[in-house]
Design brief:
alpha/beta, Nucleotidyltransferase, domain 5, five-stranded mixed sheet, 11 helices, globular
């Protein structure tokens, strides 16, 4: 079967949602489906959701290959999720074998979801035309991926560029990975909600305590309306993000740093304090040579990146 006789299926399995898309052999997105992931509760239900999305996307077309990006530490050779702090039902799960049961003999490639998003933005989004790019996923958790000359930096065991778990605050808040002071424990969606819940407990008459639901979106809206506690939450998160970005600039000196994920919807609430911080902390030459920008593929960067190895072959 030649490359122009079918389609590719890209699946981004994140901490909150499953994003699946059908792509042409040239990498053009044709159709999309999404479903909750965190709410599924166990691995079998997550597989059912993947199968349902795939069934909607690929009906009469020949399936040339499946790419899957999964939140957490992956062993792509064995197709196993080693650790997924934000989807604990997948810890130690033999995902590739189970997926092979759904897709038969179709080739399946697995990778970390942040690496997938990095490949997507590098080859088809904000990093297009760059020689090197570091991507930060700002969502339920915080992920990272470094691409140079079109290739992902994997490291000896495949865990390189896990920016969400670099420590930026000694003896800082406990992270879901078990460590303390990780970038994820200070900036992620769950970390911001955790801090908001503490404010609500300590200040039951505050506007935060009166919110019907505590989410990054509701907290961002409250902050834009001038509520001081909410604004302080985003100021703190942005400052911590800026420390992380400064570290990445100093360590990798990429041509660009690309920010993707749902927290990006907070806009200047998050980015302005981050910018003030990284400009203050980074080496001058690193700052002058690196551009920070928002991703352009939105929530589909990961799905697009999972099929890039097929396009390169």
């Amino acid at each position: 079967m030649t490359k122009n006789m079918g389609v590719y299926l890209g699946i981004d399995l994140g901490g909150t949602r499953i994003q699946a898309a059908r792509f042409t052999p040239d990498g053009v997105r044709e159709a999309t489906e999404s479903a909750p992931s965190e709410a599924q509760g166990n691995a079998d239900k997550i597989l059912d959701a993947i199968n349902s999305a795939a069934s909607q996307l690929v009906k009469n077309e020949a399936l040339l290959g499946v790419g899957l990006g999964a939140a957490g530490l992956c062993d792509p050779e064995r197709g196993r999720i080693l650790s997924s702090p934000n989807i604990p039902a997948l810890n130690g799960f033999d995902l590739k074998t189970r997926l092979q049961g759904l897709f038969g003999d179709t080739p399946i490639l697995m990778m970390n979801d942040a690496n997938a998003a990095a490949l997507g933005e590098f080859h088809a989004g904000a990093g297009l035309g760059s020689s090197s790019m570091f991507l930060l996923t700002l969502g339920t958790g915080i992920g990272g991926g470094f691409v140079a000359n079109g290739k992902i930096l994997l490291g000896t065991a495949g865990f390189a560029a896990e920016a969400g778990h670099m420590s930026i605050q000694a003896n800082g808040p406990l992270c879901r990975c078990g460590s303390r002071g990780c970038l994820e424990a200070c900036v992620s969606g769950w970390a911001i909600v955790r801090d908001a819940e503490e404010i609500a407990r300590n200040n039951p008459d505050s506007e935060i305590a009166r919110l019907p639901s505590l989410t990054p979106l509701t907290l961002a809206k409250l902050a834009r309306n001038g509520e001081p506690n909410a604004r302080a939450l985003w100021e703190k998160a942005g400052t911590m993000l800026g420390i992380g970005i400064a570290n990445l600039m100093n360590l990798f000196n990429p041509e660009c740093v690309v920010l993707v994920g749902g927290l990006g919807k907070a806009g200047s609430l998050l980015v302005d304090p981050a910018r003030r911080t990284w400009e203050n902390q980074v080496f001058g030459r690193a700052h002058q040579s690196t551009v920070v920008k928002m991703g352009t593929l939105g929530e589909w960067a990961g799905a697009r990146g999972t099929i890039q190895p097929y396009l390169d072959s």
